[in-house]
Write a structure and sequence with these properties.
This protein is mainly alpha-helical. The protein has 2 domains: 2-176, no CATH class; 224-471, Rossmann fold, CATH 3.40.50.300. The protein has a 5-stranded parallel β-sheet with strand order 3-5-2-6-7. A two-stranded antiparallel ribbon has the order 1-4. The protein is built from 23 helices and 7 strands. Helix 1 (2-18) packs antiparallel against helix 2 and helix 8 (128-141) packs antiparallel against helix 9.
């Protein structure tokens, strides 16, 4: 039965290639995914149809059915539908649950939504074991939704207090919950991350490759010709920086291109944190590429640009790789990173105190890229990461200039389609337009005082001038 349904989905996907604006075909595909219990894919198809015609009345009828099945009611359904028109499926879940009124959780959690909200609440209180239990419960209740796996994995990845025996217990329970059930590809990626943390690298590689396979076979990007042809594991491009400059949006837009095959995660941190796990571990996060060409894959870890000796490791393994750096006004970038740290409770100083403290230290440093260990004991690198010239100079001593594409973050925001054409030309793939360019992972915060902003701008002015002279391009940062 399952094979028959997948065959029908493939049939209707082919019909979309002939008539890509057919809402009736989207309706059929959404219904088929719903019958298979693949709720994430159902919602993705509903979102696709809303991109064709942004009218809730034209959305697949199964959308209301699925939301009711998941426990949404009345105004919640309308709110979710509106979010779905402009947001990613995962973001829609996250925003709706984050913005909705707090749910009173009984000891006996009955719906996946209750379990997720309980998990969020436990996270806020740093009750990690309770949060893990809540997300595992959400997976048990509804195993086809990616959201629970994302949240569970984020806790396990960053929770340093987990003992190995406790991690083993979690993995065993996780296996038992998802065994024999229809789960999204990210379920296997999360398992791979847990096994990696446990040091079981061979098993982790298998889990990552299983997640990749689950992505490949139902995806319309992958034709029979792709599936049957000889393939190799390789990485075509890296987005190396800079953090808080639009790398999430850039990578998201790129991954919508029919010739770009996404990695299991946007940020793999291989060259700055996980290099000792080995090349096989790294390559397992990417779909294999046809020997004859036609497809590309890559990742975006925005801290590669400024991380110590990362350029040497990349050159060692991928000397011909294409490198993309997107740079933002370093003052605005620093302030954005500060507020991200504040939100994540990694920063407790005021903006003025944090920036002034770092500014006073960096004023006396000859080579800004060579700060002492003492600097990192008090500072977070908000300003330090804005020394783009010094970082790029190190990369460009190894890689030729033609392997780099340098973008202005401001251009990606204000001239998105034109900027993406630059990216496609650089990667030597066909031009491709999206119906909408929604910003991903953007933040908002209060206005900085003119005095502080000017002080920081004055500090960066000579460094920005060096960058412009070195690259032969204008950034016009005030």
């Amino acid at each position: 039965m399952e094979y028959h349904l997948k065959k029908l989905v493939t049939h209707y996907r082919k019909a979309l290639q002939i008539k890509p604006d057919s809402l009736a075909v989207y309706e059929k595909i959404a219904e088929l995914y719903y019958e298979q219990g693949e709720l994430d894919k159902t919602l993705e198809v509903c979102q696709e149809s809303l991109q064709i015609q942004a009218d809730l009345a034209s959305a697949p009828k199964v959308l209301n059915k699925i939301l009711q099945t998941l426990g949404f009611e009345g105004e919640e359904i309308t709110a979710f539908q509106n979010l779905l028109q402009s947001k990613l499926v995962y973001e829609s879940f996250h925003l709706l649950l984050s913005c909705s009124e707090e749910v009173k959780i009984a000891a006996d959690v009955k719906t996946w939504k209750d379990a997720i909200v309980l998990g969020y609440d436990s996270q806020k209180k740093n009750q990690w074991n309770e949060a893990i239990t809540a997300y595992m419960k959400a997976i048990e209740i509804e195993p086809s939704l990616s959201l629970s796996y994302y949240e569970l994995n984020s806790i396990i990845s960053y929770c340093t207090s987990l003992e190995q025996n406790e991690l083993s217990r979690i993995i065993a329970s996780y296996h038992q919950i998802i065994q024999g059930r229809l789960t999204p590809p990210y379920a296997d990626v999360a398992l791979g991350d847990m096994l990696t943390k446990q040091g079981k690298i061979t098993e982790a590689i298998t889990a990552y490759k299983t997640g990749i396979d689950k992505t490949i076979y139902p995806n319309k990007k992958y034709t029979n010709k792709y599936i049957d042809c000889p393939k190799i594991y390789n990485v075509s491009f890296l987005i190396i920086g800079m953090g808080k400059a639009g790398t999430s949006s850039l990578y998201h837009y790129l991954c919508q291109h029919p010739q770009i095959l996404p990695a299991t995660d946007k940020e793999l941190h291989f060259f700055n944190k996980n290099f000792d796990l080995g090349l096989d571990w790294y390559l397992a996060h990417f779909p294999p590429l046809p020997v004859e060409g036609g497809f590309l894959t890559g990742e975006a870890t925005p801290w590669y640009l400024g991380s110590y000796e990362v350029e040497k490791k990349v050159f060692q393994l991928f000397p011909k790789i294409k490198l993309i750096a997107i740079l933002r006004n370093p003052v605005k970038r620093a302030i954005s990173q500060y507020y991200m740290s504040l939100k994540m409770m990694k920063e407790h100083r005021s903006l003025e105190v944090a920036m002034t403290s770092e500014l006073e230290i960096l004023k006396g440093v000859g080579d800004p890229t060579k700060v002492s260990d003492k600097y990192w004991q008090t500072e977070k690198g908000y300003l330090w990461l804005g020394f783009y010239f010094y970082f790029l100079e190190k990369w460009m001593t190894l890689f030729p200039r033609e392997q780099f594409l340098i973008l202005r973050s401001e251009d990606l925001s204000s001239q998105t389609e034109k900027t993406m054409k630059q990216v496609y030309d650089f990667l030597e793939i066909a031009d491709y337009s999206l119906l909408e360019y929604s910003k991903v992972n953007s933040g908002s915060y209060s206005k900085t005082s003119n005095e502080l902003h000017q002080k920081l701008s004055d500090f960066f002015q000579p460094h920005n001038q060096k960058l412009e002279d070195y690259l032969g391009m204008k950034f016009d940062w005030e």
